[in-house]
Amino acid sequence: MTVIAWLWLAGFLTIAGLALRRPAWAASLYFLTYFALPKFWWWGRDSELLGAWRWNLIAGVILALAIAIDLARRGAWRIALTPGRAFETLAPRGPARWILILFAAMAANAILVHLLLAPEPEIGRPALIYLIKHTGLAVLIWAALRHPGDQQRFVDSLLAGACYLGVAVVVFGEGEMINGRLEHVGPANAREANDLAALLLAILPLAWGALFHGRWPRRVFALGTLILTLRMLYLCNSRGTYVSAALAILALVAIMPRDLRKSWIAFATLCVLALGGVAVSNAVWPRIAIPLADPQLADRSELDPSGSRGDPATRRTQLPEEREPAGHTGSSTLERLGAIPGELADKTSASGKRLRFWQAGLAMLRDYPLGSGGHSFLEVRGAPYLAQVGVYVPRSVHNGYLDEALDWGLQALILRLALCAAIGLMLWRIAHSPSRATRERLDASAFGAILLGLMASSWFGDRLHLEWFYWLAGWTLAAGAPLKLGRRETAAP
Which DSSP string corresponds to 131-197? Predict the structure, then answer.
């Protein structure tokens, strides 16, 4: 194994040991295995020891085990023997109770649709397992983060994961530039440009919040993470994410509390300046960074059949005149954004095709309003409806709201929107509570931006079902109604 692989394994074992003392560390362990899963990176993909284990699943089991041990240590069994007290503890009042009820209702609805209405249950089973698994993850995060210090460690772990991605991409050249977009890099469910951009959208507001509060080392770290994240976001070249980020920032500038609004305006200004700087960095960045730093320097032909890039020191680099300009099919980011209005009228363009996918999805929804099970449009019932609009190959519907309704029914879409409203209400209350610490209010504001960004980007792809939505929900529950059992809670070490 490489030195980095040994360091990763040592870090995993150390954090696992800490998790048995305080469950919040198990959440950090989960993010270690999510962002830096060895089989996806050059330092670990060839290791038989690290490649043979499902580390992310192991981290999830450790998270559940750490919570169970901690609850037993605090005498939670006494509460379990008192039904009334157990209900008040596990179903807190206000939006938190509704969040938990809505999660349970969504899972129950998905199970019923899968059992009663899905024509191909085998095809839809992975989507059902995904929904139930990540609903459980949100509840585990809620149970693990019982103190503001735990919640801050959760945010810091996310920032550390994004920083690792940035270093791997920008410094060590992981990933490929295909048609001007960063592909084949990142966690398991974010290895395509659009999905990776959606993940980065869930990091940017948190990095901003860390810039305006805390000690200087943390602020410097947040600034570096922000720069690297913006660079990766630019390389992903996802128009939907750009638009979603702009809408989220503009909306929150208008609704933030007055004492935080100046910070939001400063953040918006910073984003504009940073994006402008990143936009011209294709010519500047390779000259101020490590020569192998930019993914656009990597020639796709250097990949071996297994997809491994091998040792970064042996990679061939392209001269500036050999590189393809950034942008889809040779277009710059600004050109891609400016082309949207014209594409909407052109049925053969990317935007025009998306409108046809939506038309096909609506036609199927009229025939099956109660849902058809997971992946029903792409793999089961969508082909005839796509043929009606002139599309003769299987395609996804490219709209998160339609996808939710097609899979699990209109009732599932209503439940999902109600869940977003409950989460948004709780985040609003945290951000506007004078009794809350500034850091908590900043983080709540940042998670509010993430929620709005995910909802906006769901018009262009299925984003609300992605894993970071459940991270957001778990943190919101923990910050708004922390689970308290047994002995008096103590500060996080």
Answer: HHHHHHHHHHHHHH--SHHHHHHHHHHHHHHHHHHHIIIIIT--SEEETTEEES-SSTT--SHHHHH
Q: Tell me the β-bridge partners of 178.
A: 181
Asked whether 187 and 199 are in contact (CB, 8 A), the reply is yes
Q: How far apart are the C-alpha atoms of 104 and 110, rounded to whole Å? A: 10
- CA–CA distances in Å: residue 305 to residues 184, 187, 308, 309, 310: 14, 21, 8, 10, 12
Cα of first residue to Cα of last residue in the chain, in angstroms, is: 33
Distance CA 63, CA 26 (A): 5
Q: H-helix or E-strand containing 50?
A: helix 48-51
Tens of pLDDT, residue by residue over 13-56, are 999 999 988 999 999 999 999 999 998 998 888 888 887 788 99
pTM for the full model?
0.83
Q: What is the pLDDT of residues 197-238, one digit of tens each?
A: 999 988 888 887 788 777 888 888 988 898 888 888 888 888
In this structure, what are the phi and psi dihedrals at residue 189, rounded to the nearest 5 degrees? -100, 20
